[in-house]
Amino acid sequence: MNYSNSKEIKINYIYLEFPKKEYYMVSNSDDNHSFNYIKPIGQDLTDFLNMDLKQYEDNLESLKNTLLDERTPFRYKVHAFESFSIPYAQENFIYLVYVHNPVITEVNAIITAIYSGADIHIPISAFKRWYQRVYNYFDLQKKYRKFVSYIFNLDKKRFVNHRQAILKANDDFPSIVNTELKKTITSVAMINGRMNWEYIKEINDAELSVMEKSQKAFEDSANFGTAFMTKITSLNEGLFYEFSELIKNGYRIGKCKSCKRYFLITTKRDVEYCKHKNENGLTCAQNASKAKYKESMQDIFLDKYDKKLATVYQNYYRAKDLDEEELTGSELTYTEYADWRDEAMDLRKNYISERDRISKDLTLSPQKKYRDKQKLGEKFLKDLSSIPLPHRQGRKEHGIKINE
Fold first, then answer.
1. How many whole angstroms separate alpha carbon 347 and alpha carbon 45?
2. I want to staple 189 with a disulfide (CB 3.0 to 4.6 A). Which of 72, 116, 199, 387 is the partner?
3. How many Å apart are CA 133 and CA 131, to the nearest integer?
4. How many CB atoms lie within 10 A of CB 115?
């Protein structure tokens, strides 16, 4: 049996894009037409970027040497592929679709033939083809990590925004940005603007013949909706489609300041920490929030702010049941207290923002940061004490005197 005439299993997947940012990954590689709902688009790309592949590079090199060594029996070469698999915890959707499934399906078919006692010959080109799929997976991850960091300024502040970076990327990343995608429109069974799952199951009933399915779909097509369809035939196309659609939807990719993982940002505001759960059961964002709160509690200027706020509140609380004409001295109405509090909170917010900016400034020495923060804190307290309060008989001329 000569295996040289065997054809590589071709990936035939499509993305269906619906209104309101609804996406589905659709497999046409079998009769069941499996569907995978995706929201938000771009999550598979970030999962791909986060896979820890460093520990498998040595295994990849060993696999290459095994394939090229003419002394290695072909059966061992086949089994070497069968055993080369990223552990289940690391096997994400993209890996399974574009690497594991096409390679292992072909390998398993050969192993079955071997165990049946068939006299089989496998050319080195077949092994090279399998190896190339695995190698491309490793290689593309490196390229896309550099590409994403370049586009979203994750390592260097080279561009004002990612639109500028995308224009420049035509020169620096041509193999990625010049990827061609085959996009068209199609008619799809929909209900309320989404994929009609029940109809999909019905139309793919195993008891129906292909002709019966086609006839039923044709008769019901008047009630179908339209969706954009993009055919994906390679790993790079799948990754680039995810990237192009997340850009179109206004999403971004960030790199967590804590765990260094890539994560999808679907809001306009800047996000520095991801929602990956750590050993303590809290996300990086939650841990960062706790750390910032702890830092704020150790801030002597914020501590004085809290004491001043408490003093002003007491001036209101002592007189909250009195009529306004009964107020004397430093007593406040709720409106007076609320006006003072709101202005004070704005000062506090601005102080924390500027303090954090100083902390992150890589151009400043530790001594310079300390001095700048001290000046900032002193100004914060001065501005706080300068917030005016209404004059009333018995009050100080410049408002309530707040003890330092």
1. 41
2. 199
3. 5
4. 9
